[in-house]
Write a structure and sequence with these properties.
The structure is a homodimer.
Chain A lengths: L10 E3 L25 H4 L12 E2 L8 E3 L3 E4 L18 E6 L13 E7 L7 E4 L8 E2 L12 E3 L2 E7 L2 E5 L7 E8 L2 H4 L7 H7 L3
Antiparallel strand pairs in A: 2-7, 4-5, 4-12, 5-11, 6-9, 6-10, 6-12, 7-8, 10-11
């Protein structure tokens, strides 16, 4: 697996005076990715880290919830610049490997699936970004960039086969070794909105 | 805001021998939700906690990454049993309030959006579930149930208005006070698959 799979450890002590809830703190009050705080590693694909006109914020000093990696995604792409720009740009077969702990949860996974994954190489503090292929500045929540406060990506994939705990799928665009955090069924009745329009993108494609 | 907004704290110490990465541990080796470890609170809507034929696993003793809550969702539903079964079942107007820290990231959020949120009242250890409205046992990854290892939900919503940091939307089905973790634009070109079929569900509706 990739370097990202070799995760370290942090000790956590509970505050028993607050039994109803709990918050996790990042290891450092990092302004970048507090889970993988080595900026050199994080920004391997983007040495500058931030482009002109981009805006970063200070992230909170603590997390509000914790995520389990439930498997890994294997793709042909090992450098960010090799990844397809979006999931429909490549028909490469990718593998989703589920940890044995969660194997039973695959019962009934059929046809079209909707995996969520954690983009563990992305910085988390950018609120305004200038994507290379657009060259214009927009808010993070108007973009599908991996750099976001919680670097979670969702794709609709076509399931080609399941063998044991390994799903063969088409329709991913992420780096090899990306951690998996969920798989959901895709219901066309609620998830498909063929006439949805992203205003800024539509204007780019067909300027009025 | 709701009780879930009043989060406690856990101290975290870094292990400097592993500078490249870090892992967060839950407060306890909980088998349920380690972020909100009070089972009484968690299971308020489902006193038994687990139905006959459902299967729970032991969750890992540590988290692999941390999530920031970036805002809150306000809906009309305060009890789980009042929530619509799916996001298309109600046209109630809901509000998405973004924390001021992330306000700039809204620049360019237009038309149709795709919020991700954290279902902080759900248990996380079920791998086989028997949803009440289906009455049949299926794997968690074949279901959209809130109970899942990482209780992240994704909906496609229609954006009706934005005033400052508050988005008015239609198309949510979650509890009032649910923490928001992301907003993405919905691109019909990659996200809409009108002919997607969920095998077990299609067979239920039109038995052959």
């Amino acid at each position: 697996m990739t370097a990202a799979a070799a995760l370290g450890r942090h000790g956590v002590t509970a505050d028993s005076s607050l039994p109803m809830s709990a918050t996790i703190e990042p290891a450092t009050p990092a302004s970048h990715n507090p889970v993988l705080p080595s900026l050199g590693f994080l920004m391997a694909d983007d040495p500058s880290g931030i482009r002109e006109d981009e805006v970063a914020i200070d992230l909170p000093g603590q997390f509000d919830a914790g995520v389990y990696f439930i498997g890994r995604i294997r793709t042909p792409w090992v450098r960010r610049e090799d990844c397809p720009k979006n999931p429909r740009e490549s028909d490469a077969l990718c593998l989703i490997e589920i940890d044995s702990r969660y194997a039973q949860a695959l019962a009934g996974v059929e046809t079209c699936s909707h995996p969520l994954y954690w983009m563990d190489r992305a910085r988390r503090d950018l609120v305004l970004q200038v994507p290379r292929h657009y060259g214009e500045r927009r808010g993070t929540f108007a973009l599908r960039s991996p750099a976001r406060p919680n670097p979670i990506a969702a794709s609709v994939v076509t399931l080609r086969a399941i063998e044991g705990r390994v799903l063969s799928v088409v329709g991913l665009d992420c780096l090899d070794g990306t951690p998996l955090i969920d798989i959901k069924p895709y219901f066309a009745s609620t998830d498909s909105v063929p006439d949805a329009v992203v205003g800024w993108h539509a204007r780019r494609r067909s300027p009025v």
